[in-house]
Amino acid sequence: MLKLSIVSPCYNEEEVLEKSAERLDALFDDLIEKGKIAADSFVLFVNDGSCDRTWDIIRGLSERNQRFHGVCLAHNVGHQHAIMAGMMEARHDADAVITIDADLQDDLKCIEEMIDAYAEGFDIVYGVKVSRTADPVLKRMTAVAFYKLQKKMGVESIFNHADFRFLSRRVLDALSEYGERNLYLRGLIPQIGYAATTVDDTISERQAGKSKYTLGKMLNLAIDGITSFSVRPIYLILYLGVVFLFISLLIGLYVLISLIIGSAEHGWASLILSVWFVGGVIVLSIGGVGLYVGKIYTEVKHRPLYHIKEKC
Q1: Burial class (CB in 10 A: 0-12, 13-18, 19+), 215
Q2: CA angle at residue 21 from 73 to 37, to 5 degrees?
Q3: Largest CA distance in the chain
Q4: Residues 6+ apart with CB under 8 A from 2
Q5: pTM value surpassing 0.85
Q6: How confident is the model over 118-172, as pLDDT tens digits?
Q7: Cα–chain-centroid distance for residue 132?
Q8: Which of 11, 20, 59, 299 keeps 20 to 30 A from 239, CA to CA?
Q9: Quick one: which H or E segment has residue 95?
């Protein structure tokens, strides 16, 4: 029978963690009663360097109920790295892993569907958001724009899928061979190539607390998602340079004609505007190239993704 582990990254989730644990405990009881999962299946909470009582709550849960396990990272490493830490820790003791955020806004009913899909032969099952009415309007708009931008940039990913997914052990073993430091799991997992399918995921309201995934963190994730899997921005910079070269030739032709017919006027406005505009494009282009150089700099160090401080 399938031994399942649910991996849930936690960062300052003291307000919602107890309620989430109750829901997951009830879910496991139901799945075990239906014969879907083994009785020794477990939940693994990953404390990502929280500053509140999150780790104390996780330790308390593990002391009261052996179904709950915990891993405390030495410091905050970010959402993607925390998920990776949990998956790599769980893969030695479980046949499959489901990753879900601690606020449990994703539809828990999908978990049984994921298990059924695994029984049908799928190693990867993505939770795809079919309704995001619980999310703020700005978040919904930026999310849709980001997925479309990813597609334009040539990044292979699942539209409207975040980090709610089912992975079999052999997928986890394959994932462990990827040594990337700039982690973007939404783009990395589709590259593994095992049989995959999707289930419909309806997002619900948070039961307590506020989302810790700020706009800045989402923007950083979006940049990582594009620059880690696509070199199209580099080509766009190249094409932009060609366009500006063509424009400069046209301007040079215009100036030459103006001098010949005597209509040229001495002034600084057009010159200053051109200098600032072209200068801005050059700086932007250098910044784009710099992103890739920075990623290479990070990758070649081969530093550990995380350090585990404590387990329970």
Answers
A1: exposed
A2: 100
A3: 92
A4: 36, 37, 38, 41, 95, 96, 115, 118, 119
A5: no
A6: 999 999 999 988 875 656 666 666 666 666 666 666 666 677 788 899 999 999 9
A7: 17
A8: 299
A9: none
Least confident of 1-10, 151-160, 198-207: 151-160
Which residues lie below 8 Å from residue 222, measured CB to CB, with a gap of 6+? 146, 149
Is the pLDDT reported for residue 9 higher than 90?
yes
- Judge residue 137's burial from the number of C-beta atoms within 10 Å of its C-beta, 0-12 exposed, 13-18 middle, 19 or more buried: exposed
Residue with tokens 């550990």: 304
**Dihedral, CA of residue 228, residue 231, residue 232 and residue 236, to nearest 10:** 120
* Nearest-angstrom CA–CA distance, 190 and 196: 8
d(CA 190, CA 229): 12
Q: What whole-number distance in Å separates Cα of residue 172 and Cα of residue 123?
A: 10
Alpha helices in 68-214 (DSSP H): 79-90, 109-119, 137-152, 169-175, 185-188
**Spatial contact of 135 and 204, defined as CB atoms under 8 Å apart:** no
Helix (H) / strand (E) containing 57: helix 54-64
Confidence (pLDDT) at 253: 72
pLDDT over threshold 50, residue 268: no
Contact between residue 175 and residue 87 where contact means Cβ atoms under 8 Å apart:
yes
pLDDT exceeds cutoff 60 at 272: no
Note the pLDDT of residue 264. 57
